[in-house]
Design goal:
253 residues; alpha/beta; Spore Coat Polysaccharide Biosynthesis Protein SpsA, Chain A
């Protein structure tokens, strides 16, 4: 049996973290649960631990990118074969992990499968929709990344992602910290790793508040656009199709 880990980055998610951990343990019991407490000032870590999760408690707030990379480093050190990112706010339903896993099983060699809120799915499903401004921003970045990677990207800001061992190795060594969900897609493309999306239903956050405010939207779009442009210029290893993954040569952190 492959070793599987659910990485749950959380910052001040005391109101939602117990339900998130309970959902994972009930509906995806084959996954070990790691909550990465990103320097929370509330009792997120204690509540996650009491709920039965392993907790990696960071000494101060690194931001979502740093917290997620810490989770991948834990997965690499623990010899996990599969890692899935699950937000600590309860938006991601644990039962949807099976859709990501099933797609990966049907398509061997796919390094990352993302749960998309915007792909067509069963019309009877009650799907949570973010604000109109956010949807416009997501559509903008999706089109930009689709052009850059020459592959459709419908939900570039989704943090619901299942990765294989090769992607774990890459993200443990190098993970974007500023705008991680969007930049990680470009990083995979630069390293010639493969990705795909499957439709999933997501819920409204179960507690706490988003760190992104409406008045930040325009500035966020400008910054991410610049980050993607810089990302295209970053030096990457040359990997030819069929060659061993560049991230597999050195297992050190």
């Amino acid at each position: 049996m492959p070793r599987q880990l659910a990485i749950v980055p959380a910052y001040n998610e005391a109101d939602a973290i117990v339900a998130t951990v309970d959902d994972l343990r009930a509906n995806a019991p084959e996954f070990d649960v790691l909550v990465v407490d990103d320097g929370s000032t509330d009792d997120t870590a204690d509540r996650a631990r009491d709920a039965g999760a392993d907790v990696l408690q960071l000494p101060f707030n690194l931001g979502i990118g740093g917290a997620v990379q810490a989770g991948y480093m834990y997965a690499l050190d623990g010899d996990y074969d599969i890692a899935v990112q699950v937000d600590g706010d309860g938006q991601h339903a644990a039962e949807e992990i099976h859709a990501l896993q099933a797609h990966a099983d049907r398509n061997p060699g796919t390094n990352m499968v993302t749960g998309s809120r915007f792909m067509p799915c069963d019309e009877t499903t009650d799907r949570f929709q973010s604000s109109r401004a956010r949807r416009l921003g997501i559509r903008y970045f999706g089109r930009m990344l689709s052009t850059m990677t020459r592959q459709p990207v419908t939900d570039p800001t989704s943090g619901f992602r299942l990765c294989d061992r090769t992607a774990i190795e890459l993200f443990a060594r190098d993970y974007p910290h500023d705008y991680p969900e969007v930049e990680a897609i470009l990083m995979l493309h630069a390293h010639r790793l493969t990705r795909d999306e499957v439709p999933v239903a997501m819920r409204e956050r179960q507690g706490g508040a988003s760190s992104i405010r409406p008045w930040h939207a325009a500035l966020y779009m400008i910054k991410v656009t610049l980050a993607l442009g810089i990302g295209l210029l970053r030096e990457r290893p040359t990997v030819e199709p069929g060659d061993p993954a560049a991230v597999s040569a050195d297992r050190g952190i």
